[in-house]
User: Fold these one by one.
Assistant:
Number 1:
Amino acid sequence: MSTLPARLLDGYRQFRGGRYREEANRYADLAGGQAPKTMIVGCADSRVDPSTIFSAAPGELFVVRNVANLVPPCIAASASLHGTSAALEFAVTALGISDIVVMGHGGCGGVAASLAGAEDKPVGQFIAPWVSLLDEARDRVIAKAPDDRQTALEHEGVRQSLSNLMSFSFIEERVEDGRLSLHGAWFAIGSGELHWLNRDTGAFETVAA
């Protein structure tokens, strides 16, 4: 039998003696079900935890994380398996969330892998085909020749995923009738600043702290 790593054991004990004790009633209520209003599609990167960034309480956010915070376009379920698509369907149709936020971040390894692919340097057996979802966004960025291709593609990838969200009929219907809103965000790890996508201008704007 494997042994629980010491760091995880220490963390669990701190949780039980701290946050759990303080919010025991909330956890007891959550045992009966969840009712979050916001879904975050974030990156799997260990430095970018949505619950930490938004100081979210247990049960407040429905979070799905993957490499480069990507939303695939809607395709027939029989054509492929998409954990992200399944999470979207559950959050929207079963939980009835009102907001979806696609949140990218600085220094994203998945975005770097996409850029490497453009130079015929594919990264990984599984990473390369996954980040190929960024191909169209990457080509747009490269064509514009920005000084910082990495950040430009991190931003453009968020925009691409927001566009892909609208390919799901259950999302499109709710957006059009006002039951659901879509948002884009980008987090600067070093400064801790959140940048929010202005859908009117297409620019990411720093959120006042």
Note: The CA atoms of residues 8 and 14 lie 10 Å apart.
Number 2:
Amino acid sequence: MTSKRLGILGGSFDPVHVGHLLAAETAREELQLTEVMFIPAGAPWMKEGQLHAVAEDRVAMVKLAVGLRKVFTMSRLEVDRSGPSYTVDTLEILKQSRSAEELYLILGMDAFLEMPRWREPERVVELAQIVVARRPGYGAAEGAGVDAMLSRFPGLQSRLHLLHGPAIDISATDIRLRVMEGRSIRYLVPEAVQTYIHWRGLYTAAKA
């Protein structure tokens, strides 16, 4: 049995918020992960043209967010790689470079249900255990969605982990809107991230 377990939390992190941190911490605790690696996307193909902060700003915010937690790390793997960011490519690289560790891919329920649209989703299931953080608002649709995914990917049954920790409804879209409207984002993002957003003038009407 693999002794080390690497959690992988990817995303645009535009911006990173406490929902991301809570999902990472819940996964770490429930699955006894040795490390949770945050990987900001360089050019996420499903969000082409939709990013609001440049890669270096998103990287800086993630660094600030994870800096308080020793078991949380940040990787530039996708930011420094040219071309679109595909999860399967990232997992292939980590499978080689971190071969002694079992990979656990942490997803929100919304991202999990989008997996059939991903590049080589069957290979993603082969490369990593799939960890799903529940989000409020799905209700009965959540169970139906999970059942559909299990039917779509036969190998998923033994590799799927639904987290039982608290689910909170925080979205980066809402945070950006709040900044643009001059409303508070306190407690929605780490304090250091809030300071960075204001210092850099991110998500303001002038930059929207």
Note: The chain has one domain: 4-169.
Number 3:
Amino acid sequence: MSKTTRQVRLYPTPEQSRVLMAHCQEYISTVNVLVAAFDSEVLTGNVSTKDFRAALPSAVKNQALRDAQSVFKRSFELGGVPILKKPHCQWNNQNWRMEGDLLIVPVCKDGKTQQERFRCAAVALEGKAGILRIKKKRGKWIADLTLTQEDAPASDGQAIMGVDLGIKVPAVAHIGGTGTRFFGNGRSQRYMRRRFYARRKTLQQAKKRRAIRKSKGKESRWMKNINHQLSRQIVNHAHAQGVGTIKIETLHGIRKGTTRTSRGAKVRKNNRMTNSWSFYQLSMFITYKAERQGISVEQVDPAYTSQDCPACRARNTAQDRTYVCSECGWRGHRDTVGAINISRRTGLSGTRRGATGA
């Protein structure tokens, strides 16, 4: 069993927004009061919703009590009693539901509990519904939907797929006997990264720190979305081809592979891209999505995978994007060579080097 969280944007009316804010403030106030009561031993033993008052639906009061108990337990690790400040509220799995583009939850309005329907982005819920958490972030209402999914049984496929990660080509996957497939548009992604970088540079010169932080957050969300799409495409391809194992290069020491001594502008630009590219995030996305499909994931040592000839094992340096073996004459795309060799590697050995597939 695995749990995932889906974020859904809510579009409440002004009146609904006021009701939701009052509801969230009442919720965190209740949790804070209960935590303080536990800390001062005003409430001890088996506490129920009958032991305190709150302008919340009974089911939400139950959830507030569970949250307060959880926060109080964490206070021993933190060395102090935390105080919740950001508006949010939670509902258990039996007290919310989705109907198309509507999220329906019970709220307390004018002293009475009633079902409120909030318009939201329509999403397909894959798995068993869990805790619902609604919060306000940067002026927007967001619903975090927790879903529990059963892991797929381990694949009985015998095929092995090697995945080579890079910048010019985000991901190259090779399956023995099937062939190679390229994923992502490296040119388009590099263009977007350069735009983000140029904008931040301009903002830095203008000393607009808040705008710089906002730009970084926007770029981070954009990269996360790209990595989700790429990882889903890669895992779907592996599942369709009957792959039982995905081998991916370990990313330990990726920043040590950058060139520090060269003065060339192109090398400095590639180093900046390599250091800031979210290879690790993409690797993690591939791992957990593959495991849900019953596909195992192994990390292998990527050293010289783009230099060893797949045919005769001679070591050569690729010229630009084309690899030509000086011994046997084998020709192919440089990243294809990397993916083929990764699919043949077993485990981690020797000196680990990160992916620098510029």
Note: Residues 246 and 346 are 11 Å apart (CA to CA).
Number 4:
Amino acid sequence: MTEPHAFVDDHFAGRGTAASDRQMWRHLPGCERCRARYRALTMLESLEPGGNERARDRMARAVFAPVPRRRAVWGAALALAAAAVLLVALPRDRFRARGGDPVGGDGPALSIFRVPAGGAPERVGAVVRAGDGLAFSYSNPATAKATHLLVFAVDQGGRVYWFWPAWTDGASDPRALAIATGDAPVELAEAVRHPLPPGRLTVHALFARRPYRVREIEAAVAGQGLAALDGVLVTQPLEVLP
């Protein structure tokens, strides 16, 4: 059996498999030695010709493997538990702030990737397919003062689809995902697939200054609106095609 510390070197040498990569992701949050090794190798690879493309190929093999999630209540989704977040060298697509004003260079940012069934991940423009999985990375500069993140989508009928945090039990009320502070992009290492209906869909990312629960957010969507929440809200309107 492979020693956990060897997973990082195997990953960057191209010897890793989807299974061993997933073991590495699970191991990294609890091992400072391996996290330091991962960060060092990521930085070195980003300086090499074609380094970012190699990183994307590895991520397509393991990190972005979609996990199906089922609807539970009117706006909630049943899902697998959230996976650990990892630092990766990904380009950033800045969402736009609620109301259409662009998020400034010092603000938080979210990148969104679509993962077609059986295909490679690609950054989202304005359109996704109903069967696509969605994956995300974020950056959270200190100026935002955000400690937690919630990522969800609302369709034109007002239904809510949860991406982060995962909602695994319709009777529960999960808290927002605790996030790191920094300008470097952080990958949310799981792609999520929802049965999205064709039509307009708005993805919301709330960089919150306190650990909101999902039911608080759904109450805000249905009632007073999201602008009253304590944090920075960024949004991305999408069109879902069949």
Note: The first helix runs from residue 6 to 13.
